[in-house]
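In this supplementary section we document a worked example of the pipeline. Step one takes a protein sequence of length 165 as its only input; no multiple sequence alignment statistics are reported here. Step two produces a three-dimensional model, which step three serialises into structure tokens for compact storage. The input and output of this example are shown verbatim.
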Amino acid sequence: MGKGKISILYPNKSATPTSVKDLKFDGQTLTSDLHEVGSQDEPFNFVLLDGTWSNSAALYRRLKERWTALWGEEDIPCISLSMLSASVMHKLRPQPAWDRTCTAAAAAGLLCELHMRPDLSTFELEKQAEAVECSLDILLDALTARRVRLGRSITRKQRPNRNCI
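The serialised model returned by step three reads:
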């Protein structure tokens, strides 16, 4: 897989991330502006880091080290979402910043932004985005019901008052 066919979906502050609209489409595959000879038939790969924010930051650092060792470049290709909004999971699991969200919501956002591109609209990516968003709704309902059943708060900000001596 060529380096011009990879973007990491991560809120990277050290480099200027590109957006979905900056990617170039060459027919049946996505390419970034880092074209490689002979790589036209390879698919574009979006890497989504899944874990806690501290785990994802550590994973990102390791990926960056590996990228530098493999390709000899310091800057790892990151992509950011321009239309990111708080997911339904923010109700149950608040994120450390407004521009950060759970992996599934980020995947749905990526699919939505890809669908908004005229050259990709025929792939009907909004249907996959809707499926992910519906799954998040179902997950939120199940997790909320479980917390209620266990007598726990349904938000992290409201903790039960336990008088432990």
